[in-house]
Design goal:
Strand content: 15-25%
InterPro entries: AMP-bd_C_sf, AMP-binding_CS, AMP-dep_synth/lig_dom, ANL_N_sf
Protein name: 4-coumarate--CoA ligase
Structural class: alpha/beta
GO molecular function, one term: long-chain fatty acid-CoA ligase activity
Shape: globular
CATH topology of one domain: Rossmann fold
EC number: 6.2.1.12
Strand order of the largest sheet: 4-3-13-12-14-15-16-17
Largest sheet: 8 strands, mixed
Helix content: 25-40%
Radius of gyration: 26 Å
CATH class of one domain: Alpha Beta
Keywords: Membrane, Transmembrane, Transmembrane helix
CATH architecture of one domain: 3-Layer(aba) Sandwich
C-alpha cells in the first residue's frame, strides 16, 4: 500500500494547549485516582466459553462451534439466501438511507520534488451519496443494459478495477440476471490476467479507465472477449472508439441503455456460482475459487452477529481491493445492515497520503468512519508512523505518551472498571484523541484479516485508536470466514472462536509433530466445515479433491494447510503452516512463517523473507529495512553514503540489522538454527504491483525466491 510508505501523523500534537502545571496535575490524577478506585471496582474479564466441542462427521479430530448458537447460521434473515435477494431487500428496507459515497474531484495537479520526480496530487471534496433505493435502480439498469448490449446471460463477466462504488453496482447488477462474476486484482500482471480471462471464457470485461488502456497490449491473446465496459473518471478522456475485437461502452452508457430497455430479472438460487474469485496466488498462476451465493450470505450473516450494534448509524470506509474476499465480505455485511459505505483509496486515505494535496483532507478525515477493515501490514505501519512521530517530538510529549500508553495497557489487561473508566477520559483528551483524528476520530471497531496480526500491533490499535480489533481468520476458499475474535475478548495473539456459520476442526499432523493429544492444548491442521466453505477450484478437479472433502452427513470441509491450537475457551490460535516448514540438513524442522513473525519485531524490518535450504544446517534472510530507521542509525554513527542502495550494501548496516534480529530472536526464544546466519539488505520495497506480495501483503515466496535467486545463492556461499 503506497500511502503507508510516507505515513505521517502531522496532526498529532500531544499535550498541546495544556499548561505544564495542568499536565502535571492531569498525570497525578491519571495515576493516583485510578489506583484508589481500582481497589473498589475490580471486575475481572469474563472467562466465558466462546466455543464448544461437537461431534461431527468426516476425519477424526477435535471440532468446535460457536457457543452462542445451537445450529449453524446460514442466512442474515429468512429468505435472504442469495446476494440478489439480500441486496434487493436491504435496499427496499433502507431505501432513503445513504448507501454508496464517492468524493468529488476538485482539482488534479502534478508537482515536482527536489530530485526531479513528478507526483500527481488530488484535491477532493465532500462525499456525494447514492441512497439504497437509487443504488438498487442503478444495479437494475446496468443488468438490463448488459442484456441489451448483447451479453449472453449464460456467459461470464469479469471485473478488473480498483475499489469504487461502480464496482459494487456492476457486481450487484450482474446478479439480477444470474451472471457469474470473475474478480481479478487490478495489480495482476499480464500473464495472470490473460490466464484468468481465457480460463473462465469471459465475454464481458468491466474495468476502470486505467485498466482499459492496458488491454490493447494483450488484445490478440484474449480469446472470448466481446464487450468492454469502463468506468469513467473525471479528468480522463471520454468514450473510446471500439476495438476491432470487441465493443467499448462506458458504465453510464450501459446504464442508460438498460433504463430505456428494462429486462425482467432472472434471479439466482443459493447454490448458483456468484463469483469465481482469482486469488492473488502466493505460488504460480492464480487459482479461481468458485463461491456460491449461499457461501457469501452465510459469511455475512455470521459476521453481523459479531460486530456489536452494527446498523444504519455506522459508516464504513472502503479502500481495500474488492477483488479480495475480505473486502467483498465486509461490504456485504455493511449492505445487509443498512450501513453507509464511503469509498476511498490507499493513496488518498489520510491527510498525508501520497496523492492528497498538501493542506487538504484525506478520505478518513472527511468521512469519519465508525468501521473499517484492514490487513495487519497497514496497522503495523500506522503503529510505526505514530511511534516515529512520538520519538521526533521527544520531551514531555514523549513521556506523556509512554505513561499514558502503559496505564491504558494496565487497564486493558487488568481490571475492566476503575482504572479503565477514569483513565480513558483523561488520556483520551491528553494524548490519544489527536492520534485518532488520523482515521477520522470515530472508529469503534476494526475488522482485521488476511494475515497474522502481531500482538504488539493489536494492543497498539486497542489503545491508540480506542477500538477493539476483530481479528479474523479465513481464506478465499472459506469465503473469508472461519473464526473471528469478539469485541469483549481483550486477549491477543488469537483469532477467536468459529464464526456461527461453520465448524473448526483440528486434525493431527503426525509428520510435523502436531497432534490433538498435545498438552496443554490440542494442536493440528485447521479444517473448516460449513455453509461458507466454497465449491472448489474452477477447472481444477485434482486440486479441489486434494483439499476439499464432503463427509457422510453432507458437510463440506476445506483443509487449510494451517496449523492451529485450541485454547481452553474454544478460541483458535494459528501457530504454523505446513508449506512453511523446512527440514534442515541435520533433521531440525524450521517454520519460516514463525521465524519471520518473530524477526519482524525488529525496528529495522519493513519486510523479511527467511529462506532455508534443506542441504544446509542454517537459514538465511532477505530483509527490506525500514528506511527511516536505518538512515537515522547511519546519521547517529556518522556513516557516509551516496544513496540508499549503497547504505544497504555497507557491512556496518548489515551488522547493525543482524544484531537487531538476534535480539528479536532471543526475545521470541528462537532456537539457534532458527536464527538467520546471514542476511542481505534490499533497498526496494515489496509491493503487490511488483508481484512479490499479495494484495493482503503476504509474501509470494516462490516469486521472491525466483527474483532473488542470485542473492540467496550468494548467502549460502
Amino acid at each position: 500500500m503506497p500511502f503507508l510508505d510516507k505515513f505521517s501523523t502531522n496532526h498529532m500534537f500531544i499535550g498541546k494547549g495544556y499548561g505544564m502545571y495542568g499536565i502535571i496535575a492531569a498525570v497525578i490524577v491519571g495515576l493516583v485516582v485510578p489506583l484508589l478506585l481500582s481497589s473498589i471496582f475490580i471486575n475481572k474479564r469474563k472467562n466465558r466459553q466462546r466455543a464448544v466441542a461437537v461431534e461431527v462427521g468426516g476425519e477424526p479430530g477435535i471440532t468446535m462451534k460457536n457457543s452462542r448458537f445451537s445450529a449453524l447460521v446460514e442466512v442474515p434473515w429468512e429468505g435472504a439466501t442469495t446476494m440478489a435477494v439480500l441486496f434487493e431487500q436491504s435496499c427496499r428496507k433502507h431505501a432513503k438511507h445513504p448507501c454508496l459515497g464517492t468524493r468529488k474531484l476538485i482539482k488534479k495537479e502534478v508537482v515536482e520534488s527536489s530530485d526531479g520526480r513528478k507526483f500527481e496530487k488530488l484535491q477532493l471534496g465532500e462525499y456525494q451519496w447514492l441512497s439504497y433505493g437509487v443504488a438498487f435502480e442503478h444495479a437494475c439498469n446496468f443488468a438490463s443494459g448488459l442484456v441489451k448490449l448483447g451479453h449472453d446471460i449464460k456467459d461470464r463477466a469479469a471485473i478488473f478495477a480498483d475499489t469504487r462504488a461502480e464496482w459494487l453496482l456492476a457486481f450487484q447488477g450482474c446478479f439480477r440476471q444470474n451472471i457469474t462474476i470473475v474478480t481479478i486484482y487490478s495489480s495482476l500482471g499480464e500473464e495472470a490476467l490473460v490466464h484468468s480471462l481465457n480460463e473462465t471464457e469471459v465475454s464481458t470485461l468491466i474495468c476502470d479507465f486505467k485498466q482499459l488502456k492496458r488491454l490493447s497490449a494483450i488484445s490478440s491473446r484474449l480469446e472470448t472477449l466481446k464487450h468492454v465496459i469502463y468506468f469513467e473518471d473525471e479528468g480522463e478522456a471520454g468514450s473510446l472508439s471500439n476495438n476491432g475485437n470487441w465493443t467499448v461502452l462506458s458504465f453510464n452508457e450501459v446504464q442508460k441503455l438498460g433504463k430505456e430497455n428494462p429486462v425482467t430479472p432472472r434471479l439466482p438460487s443459493r447454490t448458483d456460482i456468484a463469483v469465481i474469485m482469482y486469488t492473488s496466488g502466493s505460488t504460480g498462476l492464480p487459482k479461481g475459487v468458485m463461491v456460491s451465493h449461499g457461501n457469501i450470505v452465510a459469511t455475512a450473516a455470521a459476521v453481523r452477529t459479531i460486530i456489536p450494534g452494527i446498523g444504519r448509524n455506522d459508516v464504513y470506509l472502503a479502500y481495500l481491493p474488492l477483488a479480495h474476499v475480505l473486502e467483498l465480505a465486509a461490504e456485504t455485511v455493511m449492505l445487509s445492515a443498512g450501513s453507509a459505505i464511503g469509498y476511498g483509496s490507499a493513496l488518498t486515505l489520510t491527510d498525508t497520503s501520497n496523492k492528497i494535496k498538501k493542506g487538504t483532507k484525506g478520505d478518513a478525515s472527511v468521512l469519519k468512519p465508525t468501521l473499517m477493515a484492514t490487513v495487519p501490514a497497514i496497522l503495523d505501519r500506522v503503529r510505526d508512523g505514530v511511534l516515529k512521530k512520538v520519538e521526533e517530538q521527544g520531551g514531555v510529549s514523549k513521556r506523556l505518551f509512554n505513561v499514558g500508553y502503559k496505564r491504558r495497557l494496565l487497564a486493558i489487561e487488568g481490571s475492566w472498571y476503575g482504572a479503565w473508566g477514569l483513565e480513558r477520559l483523561i488520556w483520551e483528551n491528553l494524548v490519544f484523541k489527536k492520534i485518532r483524528t488520523i482515521l477520522g476520530g470515530k472508529i469503534r471497531f476494526v475488522l482485521c484479516g488476511g494475515a497474522p496480526l502481531s500482538k504488539d500491533t493489536q494492543r497498539f490499535t486497542n489503545i491508540c485508536l480506542g477500538a477493539p480489533v476483530g481479528q479474523g481468520y479465513g481464506l478465499t476458499e472459506t469465503c473469508a470466514g472461519a473464526t473471528f475474535s469478539e469485541a469483549d475478548d481483550t486477549s491477543i495473539g488469537r483469532v477467536g472462536p468459529p464464526i456461527p456459520s461453520c465448524y473448526i476442526k483440528l486434525v493431527s499432523w503426525e509428520e510435523g509433530g502436531y497432534t490433538i493429544s498435545d498438552a496443554p492444548m490440542p494442536r493440528g491442521e485447521v479444517v473448516v466445515g460449513g455453509h461458507n466453505v466454497t465449491l472448489g477450484y474452477f477447472k481444477n478437479e485434482a486440486k479441489t479433491n486434494e483439499v476439499y472433502k464432503v463427509d457422510e452427513n453432507g458437510v463440506r470441509w476445506f483443509y487449510t494447510g494451517d496449523i492451529g491450537q485450541f485454547h481452553h475457551d474454544g478460541c483458535l490460535e494459528i501457530i504454523d503452516r505446513k508449506k512453511d516448514i523446512v527440514k534442515l540438513q541435520h533433521g531440525e524442522y524450521i517454520s519460516l512463517g514463525k521465524v519471520e513473525a518473530a524477526l519482524a519485531a525488529s525496528d529495522y524490518v519493513d519486510n523479511i523473507m527467511v529462506y532455508a535450504d534443506p542441504f544446509h544446517s542454517y537459514c538465511v534472510a532477505l530483509v527490506v529495512p525500514s528506511r527511516h530507521a536505518i538512515e537515522n542509525w547511519a546519521r547517529s554513527v556518522g556513516i557516509e553514503y551516496q544513496n540508499y542502495g549503497e547504505l544497504c550494501n555497507q557491512d556496518e548496516a548489515v551488522k547493525e540489522v543482524q544484531q537487531s534480529l538476534l535480539k528479536a530472536a532471543k526475545t521470541a526464544k528462537l532456537d539457534k538454527f532458527e536464527i538467520p546466519a546471514k542476511i542481505m539488505l534490499l533497498p526496494d520495497a515489496w509491493t503487490p504491483e511488483s508481484g512479490l506480495v499479495t494484495a493482503a501483503l503476504k509474501l509470494k515466496r516462490e516469486q521472491l525466491k525466483a527474483k532473488y535467486k542470485a542473492e540467496l545463492d550468494k548467502l549460502y556461499q
